[in-house]
Amino acid sequence: MFTGIIEELGTVESLDLLDGDAARLTIRGPKVTADAGHGDSIAVNGCCLTVVEYGDGLFTADVMRETLKRTSLGTLDKGSTVNLERAVTAHARLGGHIVQGHVDGTGTIASRTPGEHWEDVRIATTPDLLKYVAEKGSIAIDGVSLTVTDVDDASGTFGVSLIPTTLELTVLGRNAVGDTVNLEVDVIAKYVERLLAAGNVPGNGGTGADNGGNVRDNGGDR
User: Fold this and answer.
1) Which residues face 15 on adjacent strands?
2) φ, ψ for residue 189 (rounded to 5)?
3) CA-CA distance, 31 to 9, in Å (whole number)?
4) What are the pLDDT tens digits along the chain (222 aa)?
5) CA dist 212 to 135, 194, 197, 202, 215, Å?
6) What SS3 state is found at 132?
7) I need a surface site. Which of 103, 141, 182, 215 has the fewest CB within 10 A?
8) Taking a C-beta distance cutoff of 8 angstroms, is the pair 120, 159 a contact?
């Protein structure tokens, strides 16, 4: 589990595609590898990956087909900058929100509007993801825990506001309009939808009626 508070900006050393079905990703991140061990979890642009090799400030992770399909990791190149966060420990402060590292899908940066003290950013995504996004709710964008400022169903977009620290210390400060970002919606919303669809919520009549929602598989390796 993660909190969406980015610890370090890493650099992609290599991305080796394996028969188009999987990939092996190697990233330089001296901070997140300082206490790394085999099997540890590190979120890369919000995707939970498992460390299979590490040393000299580098770590390598295997990326399966499901992750390549649902996230933007397959588009990374040597030299790409990525957000990195180690899994949270039991005694750490939960500075952001509960982030699983299970990416639900992607969005596109629709606009950026700089302000004097922050920058407003709009993200476009599909209706099946936008239905989970709520004003003043939490969302992880490329692994960054953010608060939704508004949702516009008509345009298929939602807004977030980025403070100077977020712009400086995460890849969101470098992304341009048109760039693809990974999205993880609030896990509670997905569980509520699943329970309602299965008819397992006390007081709903036990009809088992499908509410039309689709439960998404995760985009992480864990």
Assistant:
1) 25
2) -60, -40
3) 9
4) 999 999 999 999 999 988 768 999 999 999 999 999 999 999 999 999 999 999 999 999 999 999 999 999 999 999 999 999 999 988 888 888 999 999 999 999 999 999 888 999 999 999 999 999 999 999 999 999 999 999 999 999 999 999 999 999 999 999 999 999 999 999 999 999 999 999 855 665 544 444 444 444 445 554
5) 22, 10, 8, 19, 10
6) coil
7) 215
8) yes
